[in-house]
Every structure is written in structure tokens, then in C-alpha cells.
Amino acid sequence: DAKTTQPTSMDCAEGRAANLPCNHSTISGNEYVYWYRQIHSQGPQYIIHGLKNNETNEMASLIITEDRKSSTLILPHATLRDTAVYYCIVRVEGTGRRALTFGSGTRLQVQP
Amino acid sequence: KAGVTQTPRYLIKTRGQQVTLSCSPISGHRSVSWYQQTPGQGLQFLFEYFSETQRNKGNFPGRFSGRQFSNSRSEMNVSTLELGDSALYLCASSPARGGQDTQYFGPGTRLTVL
Fold it and tell me: If you count Cβ atoms within 10 Å of the first and of the last residue's Cβ in chain B, which end, N or C, has fewer?
């Protein structure tokens, strides 16, 4: 699976959009971009994933650049409950190998 | 639909003992994976089970083992516990059908080895 690079930490004001970047310059054509988050000492929570088109669900939006070398997770209106470590992961689907490789992630602190 | 459940949530053991952790996947999910999370090493993949067979294994010693039952429930066992085995153990389930591979995590079992 391709390696990802994320900033170590970010701050965001409550109510504002949080934009979390991820670099995956060695991504292959069949690798998906996944985002998970982990609130302190809880299990990681799935947020969203995509291949090349932008995706949106009730939690967030995922913007993938046209060359697929980077992506941005957008939390449109951050709340204090969004304070967590956010992990960007790239992986191939449909191979029967479902292991996720977690990096260090981005620690997002939402400020009141 | 109920999420992934793990039991027990907290466990304290002493060195040399063994421990068994349990995971019940989301209903209808066929794949169960286990991860270990420590402050030093982060989240690391242990192994994955599908159709009662271990499909993939991470880089952990043989003291770590697991199994999956016909109802997709899974257990993992750690024998001869060491202090370094203190960690949050996470279970994740996936539909594993029709290309649906997204993993959903349980709350974890916090193991402390004294």
C-alpha cells in the first residue's frame, strides 16, 4: 500500500471548516483513499473513502486531486467532538487483503 | 444495526499468564481483523480471519494467535504475556462481499500486563 504523509497537528475554530490534507504521491491507480479518526482511547471510526471522484457523506467531504497524489478531508462545521487523530490510508480493494496500515495521523484540536 | 463489540473492555494480567479476547462483528460481516495499539508503535495489524481461516498475518510472534467461529465471532489469544503486550487491542469487521472491504472498529480491549 502507498505511503501517506500528514501534518502532525492542526487547530480549527469551532464552527469553521476543518481541512485536513494528505499526501500520497506514490498512489497506484487501483488504490483507494480512506479516512478514519480516533477519539481518545476509542476504536477508530470510519469516515469516508474514495478512488478518484470527490465524495461526500453525512460526516465529511473528500476531495482528491486530479493526479490523485493528494487529498483533503473536509469537516464542514467542526465541533469540539471532532477533536481526534485523523488517519489517511491508501489501500487496494478486492484483493482479499484487508489489513490497514496506519501512520501517525493528524491530531486535530477544535478550539471553542 | 449493532456495531462491533469486544469483551472484556479492560483486563489486568501478570507476566507469564495467557489471555483470550473476544470480538463479535457487525451482523452479516464475514471478515474480522485484529490490531494492537501502543504509544510507541501506534496501530499495528495482527491478523485477519475470513470463513474461519486466517487470511493475513502481521509481524507478531507466535504467542499471538486467533480463531474465527462459524458465526464469524472471533477470539484472539496471547500466551506467556510480557510487559510489552500492554496495549489497546482492537477488532474490526468488514462485509467482505461484493467488493465491500471497509473495516469498522470496535471499542477495544485495554490489556494491562503487570
Answer: N
What's the pLDDT score for residue A24? 95
pLDDT tens digits along A31-80: 999 999 999 889 999 999 999 989 999 999 999 999 999 999 999 999 99
Measured over the CA atoms of residue B61, residue B78, residue B66 and residue B103, the dihedral's sign is: negative
Which of A35-44, A89-98, B47-56, B99-108 has the lowest average pLDDT? A89-98
Selected residue of B103, B109, B111 to mutate for chain A interface (largest A Cβ count, 10 A): B103
> Three-state SS for A5?
strand
Which residues on chain A place their C-beta less than 8 Å from a C-beta of chain B? 34, 36, 41-46, 49, 87, 93-94, 96-104
Cβ of residue B103 closer than 8 Å to a chain A Cβ: yes
Q: Could B108 and A42 be called an inter-chain contact, meaning their C-beta atoms sit closer than 8 Å?
A: yes
Amino acid identity of A67? D
Q: Name A38's Cβ contacts closer than 8 Å, sequence gap at least 6.
A: A44, A45, A84, A85, A87, A105
Strands (E), A18-83: 18-23, 31-38, 45-50, 55-56, 61-64, 70-75
Say what the pLDDT of residue A31 is: 92
What pLDDT is recorded for position B13?
A: 98
